[in-house]
Structure formats: structure tokens, C-alpha cells
């Protein structure tokens, strides 16, 4: 049961699946509206028909840019299209509903207010509007204390709140531009927390070169993929390079599984500094750290299998790039070991 429950982080598939299903339903809805309008069977005017087709075009655009190929190559365009087109669709749905309700209430000889209150679509739409607005109510510009680690990484310290096991934060320089999610881990004194930012794109590179003193955060700290590992008692954590950042979120509190760590990276001390290595040692007093500058890249699967056997681990958590994560998880599951790694939509 716990092995199945730990796959809860696959919610991204549910999100995209529901989106496609809703689009198919909406295509049918627009088709029925169009047929009734052109056949003269409907009392609706041309305005809601035009709005319906504009919404249809926007929904199609959202789906197209969300395709993994486009999303990977043009992530900033995906995020902006997804956000602003989504907001516009909801706004147009409000207008469409009001026009429809006004014309329908007149036809049924009811007041507009009473018709809306008895219309389920109105309440569904209100819930959607509240769900969109809610995270932005917590939009804040917070103070950041950057700690330069190397040309590849920077550690950002925050004091506006504290963190716990497996939580992450959404950050950006401008609230209407691209947002980036980072795992969080507590600072030693426990009254602040940090996020490890590694060079992985334009935004993170700029964050290292031009270290921010303030950033925007949205909503509250939310649980990420790592939180699913809490259902186990003994976990082997496997990571490469900057994947150690999300792994450090396991230090959020003392209520965590017993951990062993396997970390393969280039020049860990030079790249991330002694303080990060000390945090890794808090997770595992005897971590397996593979310096690729000395040994080159090695096949971690035999090392993982041996450690799982010695530690009697219940699960393996793999956090790396998509190719390595998928490969290692597949090989471990092929040997009957419960292995988990974040998927594209985690």
C-alpha cells in the first residue's frame, strides 16, 4: 500500500489528462451551440458563439505549448502562454456565462440573480476564480541573503518564515514573468531556511552572477516530490550534481526516514562548499560521495543495490536529470526494488 501511495507525485498526469478531457468536452459543447445557432433552434445571439470560439482557440494554444517538446525548448514562452491565456480564458468564461445567463433568464422569465444562483456552472466558475486568486493574495517581496558558493551554485537564505520536511518555494524577480520552484531546507539555527540554486538556465545563471537581495515569492511553502518518501522508514537517496538541493529538503524536521545518501558530482567541495557537505552528513553520517573529477562517471546501480541490501532499505529516491532518473528507476524496479523519481509533471 505504501509503495503505491508514494507515487502520489504523479499528479501531473492527472492535471494534463483532465485538461485534455475538458477540452474534448468543450469541443462538443461548442459544436452543439453552433449547430443550434445556425439551425435557428437557439435563442442565443452571435456574441456567445464568437466568445466560445475564441475560448476554444485559446484552450488549443495552451495544450499545444504544454507539449513536452515545446515546453522543454521554450519554457519561458510555455509558462507565459499557460498563465496569461489561462487567465484570459477564465475571464472570457465569466463574460460568456453572464451573456448566456442574461439571455436564458429572459427566456425563462426569471431574474438574472436568481438564475445565476441556481446555475451550477456559476458556482464552478467562482471556485475556479478563487483558486486562481488565492496564491496571489500571498504575493510578497522578501529579503534574500545570498551566499556565493561557486560559479555553478549560490545558496539563498530566507528569514520570512521557516520550513519543514519536503517543502519548496516559488521564486521570481518579477511577479508577471517566469517563476521557478526550489526545494527548501532549514538553516542550522532553525529560524530561517535556504534554497540551493544551481546553474541550469538563464534565470539560475543570472541569479549566480547577479545575486539578488530581494525576490518575489507566491503563495506559501508547498510539499514537493520528496514528501512522498515520508511513508517509508529507511530510504536510500540517490542524486547527481545539483540534485543534492532537493535532497536537502529531507532535513526539514526530525520526523523523517532513516537515510543513506549516494551523491555523484563534480568537485563537491569546490562547487558547493563545506557547509553543504556538512548538511549532507546530517542526512547520512557516512554518505557515498563520488567525485567525477577523480573517478569519472560510474554506474551507480550496483552501488545502490549493495547499499539497499546492507541498509535493508524500503525504497530508493532518485533525483537527477530526466534521463538518469528514468534509467536508474527502471533498472532498480527491474530488480524488484521500490524506486521513485520525479517525473516531468511532478
Automatic annotation (TrEMBL):
Transmembrane segments annotated in the record for this chain: 12-33, 45-64, 84-101, 121-139
GO cellular-component terms in the record? plasma membrane
Q: Name the InterPro entries on file.
A: Adenylate-forming_domain
Q: What are the entry keywords?
A: Membrane, Transmembrane, Transmembrane helix
The UniProt entry's GO biological process terms, in alphabetical order, are: conidium formation; regulation of conidium formation; sexual sporulation resulting in formation of a cellular spore
* Top-level taxon in the UniProt lineage: Eukaryota
Would I find Transmembrane among this entry's keywords? yes
**PANTHER family to which the protein is assigned, alphabetical:** INTEGRAL MEMBRANE PROTEIN TMPA, TRANSMEMBRANE PROTEIN
Protein name in UniProt: Integral membrane protein TmpA
**Species of provenance:** Aspergillus ibericus CBS 121593
Amino acid at each position: 500500500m505504501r509503495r503505491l501511495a508514494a507515487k502520489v507525485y504523479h499528479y501531473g498526469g492527472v492535471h494534463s489528462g483532465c485538461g485534455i478531457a475538458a477540452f474534448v468536452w468543450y469541443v462538443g459543447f461548442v459544436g452543439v451551440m453552433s449547430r443550434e445557432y445556425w439551425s435557428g433552434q437557439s435563442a442565443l445571439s452571435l456574441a456567445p458563439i464568437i466568445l466560445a470560439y475564441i475560448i476554444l482557440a485559446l484552450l488549443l494554444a495552451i495544450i499545444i505549448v504544454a507539449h513536452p517538446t515545446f515546453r522543454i525548448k521554450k519554457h519561458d514562452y510555455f509558462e507565459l502562454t499557460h498563465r496569461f491565456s489561462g487567465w484570459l480564458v477564465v475571464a472570457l468564461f465569466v463574460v460568456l456565462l453572464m451573456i448566456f445567463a442574461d439571455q436564458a433568464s429572459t427566456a425563462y422569465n426569471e431574474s438574472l440573480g436568481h438564475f445565476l444562483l441556481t446555475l451550477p456552472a456559476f458556482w464552478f466558475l467562482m471556485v475556479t476564480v478563487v483558486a486562481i486568486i488565492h496564491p496571489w493574495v500571498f504575493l510578497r517581496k522578501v529579503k534574500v541573503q545570498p551566499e556565493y558558493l561557486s560559479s555553478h551554485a549560490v545558496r539563498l537564505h530566507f528569514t520570512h518564515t521557516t520550513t519543514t520536511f519536503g517543502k519548496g518555494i516559488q521564486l521570481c524577480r518579477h511577479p508577471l514573468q517566469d517563476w521557478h520552484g526550489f526545494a527548501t531546507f532549514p538553516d542550522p539555527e532553525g529560524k530561517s531556511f535556504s534554497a540551493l540554486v544551481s546553474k541550469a538556465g538563464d534565470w539560475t545563471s543570472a541569479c549566480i552572477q547577479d545575486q539578488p537581495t530581494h525576490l518575489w515569492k507566491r503563495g506559501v511553502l508547498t510539499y514537493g516530490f520528496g514528501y512522498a518518501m515520508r511513508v517509508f522508514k529507511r530510504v536510500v537517496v540517490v542524486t547527481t550534481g545539483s540534485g543534492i538541493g532537493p535532497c536537502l529538503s529531507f532535513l526539514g524536521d526530525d520526523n523523517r526516514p532513516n537515510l543513506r545518501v549516494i551523491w555523484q558530482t563534480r568537485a563537491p567541495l569546490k562547487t558547493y562548499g563545506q557547509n553543504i557537505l556538512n548538511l549532507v552528513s546530517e542526512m547520512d553520517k557516512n554518505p557515498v560521495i563520488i567525485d567525477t573529477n577523480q573517478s569519472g562517471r560510474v554506474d551507480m546501480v550496483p552501488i545502490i543495490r549493495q547499499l539497499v541490501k546492507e541498509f535493508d532499505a524500503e525504497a530508493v529516491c532518485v533525483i537527477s536529470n530526466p534521463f538518469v532518473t528514468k534509467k536508474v528507476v527502471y533498472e532498480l524496479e527491474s530488480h524488484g526494488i521500490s524506486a521513485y523519481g520525479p517525473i516531468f509533471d511532478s
